[in-house]
Amino acid sequence: xxxxxxxxxxxxxxxxxxxxxxxxxxxxxxxxxxxxxxxxxxxxxxxxxxxxxxxxxxxxxxxxxxxxxxxxxxxxxxxxxxxxxxxxxxxxxxxxxxxxxxxxxxxxxxxxxxxxxxxx
Length: 120
Ligand code: AMP
Description:
It is a single chain. With 120 residues, this protein is an alpha+beta fold. The protein has helices at 8-13, 53-59, 62-78, 93-96, and strands at 21-24, 28-32, 40-46, 86-89, 105-109. A hairpin with a 7-residue loop joins strand 2 and strand 3 (40-46). The radius of gyration is 14 Å and the shape is globular. The two termini are 27 Å apart.
């Protein structure tokens, strides 16, 4: 799938719509989800134009991937999510339930998070 530069996270990266930022560095931006599913629900996105986890893991540079993984762990710790535990999730493609076609990691924390995957 080609990257759509008009997706909502691309607009956030360009400053065209606001976000509640929690972290930023050279390669990464993180902000609170607009419709939180847990007391802590943060989205971590690369600044590069990657459609999905599949795209990012295959085509991002080693530097981008290392920065992204390090940042996601730091963000969770900085939010205190490591104390009682948390979940990271990357919905990917149609069956994965991905709605926004810019790669993003969800970080959920702040309550017991229940089943790993919804029942069929
Ligand atoms: P996904 O289904 O994995 O693609 O998740 C997309 C997420 O983006 C959802 O949890 C939405 O609530 C969230 N979202 C959509 N628009 C915004 C926005 N403008 N700011 C923050 N989060 C958003």
